[in-house]
Amino acid sequence: MLKHLAASLVRRVPLVRAMIRFGVARWGKPGVAAVIVHDRRVLLFRHVFWTAARWGLPGGGIERGEDAETAIRREVREECGLEIEIVRRLENSPTGAVHFLCAAPDRGTGQRLPHLSFEILSAEWFAPDRLPHGVLPSHERAIEAAFEQR
Predict the structure, then answer these.
(1) How far apart are CA 55 and CA 44, in angstroms?
(2) What is the residue-level pLDDT of the chain in tens, covering all 150 positions?
(3) Which of 42, 66, 110, 115 is the most exposed place for a label (fewest CB within 10 A)?
(4) Dist. CA 117–CA 12, nearest whole Å
């Protein structure tokens, strides 16, 4: 319930949106995102703090001293508790974020994930041709690239 209240504030209160944009611009860390595939479906999250899109790939910022592979493993583990296997690196997004095609282990890939962090409203598995409305365009391109090369 608290997550939904926070998400509502982020989306509806201009001052909160401006504070988040300022924080992102100020921290400006390079990003990573994972196209996690299992049974020809991709995992998408609805994030509490995202103002522009409703759905997106798991991911986040690269911390000081981390490489992109370590960062994406950490981010996915923190956000949903999955341990992932990196299959290959995809093209970087126009924003410079590093995208990876990843496999999910059998554990946790059914209806429930091990856990969802405070920043994730919900998580669902989608067929690549049935993505929900509101996926970030760069994430849609990463998903298309992942399935084209499979």
Answers:
(1) 6
(2) 554 544 454 445 554 444 444 444 334 567 999 999 988 899 999 888 776 668 999 999 999 899 999 999 999 999 998 999 999 999 877 778 899 999 987 654 455 677 888 888 889 999 999 999 889 888 999 999 999 865
(3) 110
(4) 22
